[in-house]
Amino acid sequence: MVLTNWRGRFYLPGNTWVLALSATVWNIGGAMANPYQSVYFSGLGANSVFIGYLLAVNSAVTALMQLVGGYVADAWGRRKVIVIFSFLSAASAFIFILISQPALLMIPIIIGAISGIYGPAFNATLTDSMEPRLRARGLVSFTLVTSLPAIFFPYVGGAMMQRFGTLQGLRIAFFLSGLLGVIGVSYRAFRLKESYVGSEVKTKKQIHQLVLDFFSKNLYVLRNATDGAKKLLTYAVLASVGTAMTVPYASLYLVNIVNLPPEYYGLLTNIAGLVSVLLLLPAARIIERVGLRKSAIYASLSVPVNQLIFVSAKGKDDFVTWTAVGGASGALLAPSLTALQANLSPQEMRGRIMAMFSVFSLITAVPAQIAGGYLFETLGPLSPFIVSTPFFVLATLTLVRIREPRLRPSAR
User: Fold this and answer.
1) In a domain, 198, yes or no
2) Rounded CA Rg of the chain
3) What are the angstrom distances between the C-alpha of 62 and each of 65, 71, 253?
4) Which SS3 state, helix, strand or coil, does residue 198 take?
């Protein structure tokens, strides 16, 4: 099935529609809990340094799982790994409810990170059935469908914190996140079809042969990736440093330092989501007119500017501006980068190449998240946002050097 309506602006072919519907249900629950994860950790007694270590562990384990997941997606196929580990990821939300002390947070963090093994298969499946020239539109359509219903639920999470207290309110949010995740993933398990039969799906190998293949084929991908893919990988690493230093600590800064009510922080998150969704369809037209590379450059340029807005903010209006600019940037940047990754990746290596982007970004995020926690604790809560800005500038300069590939229609 291909969903193409609203004058042909939507494009969700085959499995993309199944993934979109299942993710939509799941995202509604996640939107209530995820924006406040660092606040929940703090409420349990974790300081910013320990929060940095928790997030670093998550990044390190997820990086390993993504590397394995890329190999599995290309060697054995996509569907089975998506279904099994999607259930594990959804179930990890329930464990947060049972945590009573900071050290135990390692349990759901590690389980959630292990479930990240399905990420490369998910991303590859998402783009496998899309025409290369329509991938940006397809990714915009996917983001629109999955984000729109969840836009106002960060406010619901903040309201529950305001009504029941930080810990009790967020435990309710984590429960709803897990419940809706299981519902969405159940639909995914029944309707998702295999998009790529792995080259080794019928091959029986010994464990040592599998390990050797795992390393040799990932090294092969690194050696044989196009020049554009390698430069895009450099961009992902640099941007990851800046993102890892700042994103976990934005909610801590606004709720604990600036003393914004949780409901107001939820409204800020709502504004970012609403701006992003409203601009998605215009963003798709911009991307198709000016190209993936230029669209990514334009959007990336706004990121360091937005960091400066955050650092120099004097009141609530400035934070609204920061939120709106971030939402506008995300509407253009995310689909253009993901489509560019897919277009630089042949299908038989797409799972592994797209995994490399996640793996290298996550590995880089490990020290950056720890450093962000130390900066927040020792040099002041705004220091991570100041230090991160040069990395976003360097990332944008790397995008300028990428040449956009020439595309041919997909074989059907």
Assistant:
1) no
2) 20
3) 5, 14, 26
4) coil
Phi, psi at 6, each rounded to 5°: 50, 60
Number of domains making up the chain? 1
**What is the pTM for the complete model shown?**
0.70
Give the range of the structural domain holding residue 263, as residue numbers without chain letter: 15-193+207-400
Looking at this protein, which amino acid is placed at residue 42? S
Amino acid at 373: G
Contact 124, 71 (CB under 8 A): no
Is residue 5 in a domain? no
Smallest Cα–Cα separation from 32: which of 333, 319, 273? 273
CATH number, residue 116: 1.20.1250.20
pLDDT over 50 at 143, yes or no: yes
Distance of CA 322 to the CA centre of its chain: 20
Residue owning tokens 């590690």: 110
Kindly tell me the number of DSSP H helices and DSSP E strands found in the chain: 17, 2
Phi, psi of 223 (to 5 degrees): -70, -35
* Residue 46 in domain: yes
Give the per-residue pLDDT at 3. 47
Segment holding 3, helix H or strand E: strand 2-3
Across the strands, what pairs with 2? 13
Helix 347-378 and helix 383-400, axial crossing angle in degrees, nearest 10: 150
**Cβ-based neighbour number of residue 13 at 10 Å:** 17
pLDDT value at residue 338: 78
In a domain, 263, yes or no: yes
Mapping DSSP to helix (H, G, I), strand (E, B) and coil, where does residue 200 land? coil
